[in-house]
Amino acid sequence: MKPSPARNLWTATEPLHAVVYFAPEPAAAAKDVGLRGWWMGYFAGRAAPLGPIGPEPVTSMFFGFAPGMVARALPDAWTFASPDDVLRTRVEAVEAALARLLGPDTVDELVTLLEQAVAACHFDARPLAAAWSAVPRPDRPLARLWLATAVLREHRGDGHVLAAVASGLTGLETTLTHLATGATTREQVQRARGWTDEEWSAATANLVDRGLIDAGGLTPAGAEIRRTVEETTDRLAAAPLEALGPEGVDRVLELATPLSRRVIDRGGVPIPNPMGAKRP
To answer: Which secondary structure element, helix H or strand E, spans residue 217, and what is its range?
Structure first.
């Protein structure tokens, strides 16, 4: 099936955002500000615009993580560093990472287009994207670039959660049906999401009982659910594309694709990875 324009936009821009999860600068910044361990930095950094939030709403919004994994990081993170300090140092660190990976290329036009797309986002029932949209816009181009990609990816991600829940899938079940497409592997995902073997097996058995997966992967019914989830995700992510128009979307792809390739080729984002970002 041919990728949709919404999927193409995500593929072209996600590596520019995903630097925050793989480059050394954000991890070092989280450590320097007082956070304990990489995963505490991940959960606190991604949730920082929401304030000193606890594990239950973060588990709900992040959707694919085991509750116990989130609870090991939050709310303890806020005893070591404030959300404001975590957010400030995170943006500064990813800006430094992008400067190192991208070099001196001008990104002003791409930033303008992405911020135009962000301005068109709808945030109803999208708490994570709404929180990131409220972060004050920096005056530095690479920081603005990253913040725009953060809002757009969380906007799409919140919509993906809505689509999966509407299709009757839990976070782990959504992950398992994604794995059943062959897009990634259990080894790449299970440890990164914190699920025990027992939880993994129980969710797998439930999907088998529902006729959604079998030993060969997705059943026809499972493939239909995955198609529905992906199509709904794209539909819920349509507003930014409509604001850009076809020519604007094409221009974003033209500008972002070589930058994302450079990030990947220079080691900023590994391929494959748990979130499924690809080399555009």
So the answer is: strand 217-218
